[in-house]
Write a structure and sequence with these properties.
Number of domains: 2
Shape: globular
Order of helices and strands: EEEHHEEEEEEHHEHEHEHEHEHEHEHE
CATH topology of the largest domain: Quinone Oxidoreductase, Chain A, domain 1
Amino acid sequence: MPRKLVAITPRKAALVDYEEATAGPNQVKVRVEYASPKHGTEVGLFRGEDPFVADLFDEDWRLFVQREPGGWGGENGEGPALGNQWVGVVVEKGDHVGRFHVGDRVCGYGSIRETQVMDAVDNPYLLEVPVAMPWKSALCFDPAQFALGGIRDGQVRLGDRVAVFGLGAIGAIAAQMAKAAGAAYVAVIDPIEKRRRAAVNAGADAAFDPLNDDVGLELKRATARAGVDAAIETSGNEQALQQALRGLAYGGTIAFVGWARAFSGTLDLGREAHFNNAALVFSRASSEPNRDHPRWDRQRIAESCWTMLASGVIDCERIIDPVVSFDEAPSAYELYVDRKPQQSIKLGITFD
């Protein structure tokens, strides 16, 4: 019987059996080869801290409302399924599926499990993986979209000076995108040395450690006191936001991409934010309508990212790290995603 990765209690992962479905007329069945979780927003759910645990975002009212009683667990007493993206090979297809064939390698959204059965007729996020495209690049499809949303919302332009805070997959990709957009200077900020080194190897001009560096001051020093034109904040950390405000040029823009937890009270908007005319934009690529609607929407962002990933404009070789076997997935998830994220950038899982 095939297995999937789930949270059985907060902060505890396990592989559990599931009933395997067959492909319907509009569906394909995929044997998964590689998969990856979403380190940022997903870890809050894994820990039982996510706002969606107790509340539900009401699309009509555009605010969180209390969820009906039911607890944290999911079906059959399980907690939430874990995982975000996967790459695999089509092993079965329905009669109405025309754009995929048995043997095609595809990438899609879904939890970490041995097989996937999903719609293949009306699903723009199920994509064929080109032969030359590395599987690690395909697994970065989701974070690339939020990175591009941040770059666009931050109004990064040719010749700009940019700072990227947080070097998980979104921040690491955003730094490369800023360079691809023509930024003259890209600084990256993260307390994890492994992540800073990977970003510099991928093209960043400078890296700072917020635990030891006065990041705002260093950004001003590196730009002859002017500051950066745009800051892309992907960590959701209040002190990162504070330092972004310190290092921002007068009238510059901060794209706040990270999904923040409740701030503890150390953010002080009476300091640089009050004097430097900062523009703070909350950026989420999947929120519609897009700020540039109708010219841009989530689909255009996704298509642009897939093209960049498939063509090699974005290098994801160092981003998917470490890579473990499916059997190791529960312990690796607990270690690299939850307890010691400093030892990883984006966890990769291989199915042998």
